[in-house]
Amino acid sequence: IKNVNALEMDYDGNFWIGGIGSFQEESGITYWDTRLDSWTNYQARFDNSLFSDQVTSIAVDDSCTWFVTEYGLACFAPDKNAWRTFDVSSGLGDNYVLDVEVDDENVWIGTLNGLSQIIKDSLGTKNFRIQEIARKDLLRKKIYDIEIMNNLLWIGTEYGAYIYDTAEKT
Hints:
15 strands, mainly beta, 4-stranded antiparallel β-sheet, 1 helix
């Protein structure tokens, strides 16, 4: 990719690289295995489970690497070598995702329409759901950035910064 918007190193020192391809340029998500010095490119046009390879943010987790796109939130599970995309039909607040952060128990997703949460233990179960957080305060607000500090989510919006206490749910 020429236009790199996101870089993230995984726990093994390998890199995930994503960006936005310009008109008629090839796009994709690139994985660089630094130990083997091998490169793998993933493209949405060749994989129906990856809705978009236009990436603006990446977050690495134990079992999944998360990719922010304008067509939902994509997850790559390396143990299954498989993609899964979450969008409004999965319960996401909006398909246009702007940021993602992960902690030990949750995936926090900033969209054009507020803050969404995935409880990681629910992934792959019939109880899986994505829930909107702080609807009263954050619904219909663009969540541009999320940072995690202990139990606090620092949230950058079009109306300034918000702090959400995940322990108190306030």
